[in-house]
Write a structure and sequence with these properties.
The protein is an all-beta fold. Helices cover about 0% and strands about 60% of the residues.
């Protein structure tokens, strides 16, 4: 059995972003990007309020 490499990166200061929470949510929402999980080359964002949302834009 081969070991999987999982890399978890968290930001010291979360980054404000706009996300698309999905079909059941009618509009984009503000959220905080806490970091990333990189599993076998596939990066997934770690979001505070909408964990399964898609990041649409970074808020300046």
């Amino acid at each position: 059995m081969e070991a999987e490499e999982i890399i978890i990166r968290y930001y010291g200061k979360p980054i404000p972003v706009m996300v698309d929470p999905g079909k059941n949510h009618p509009r984009h929402e503000r959220d905080l990007l806490l970091g990333w999980i990189d599993k076998e080359g596939h990066k997934s964002p770690v979001l505070k309020s909408f964990p399964n949302a898609k990041i649409m834009a970074k808020i300046e």
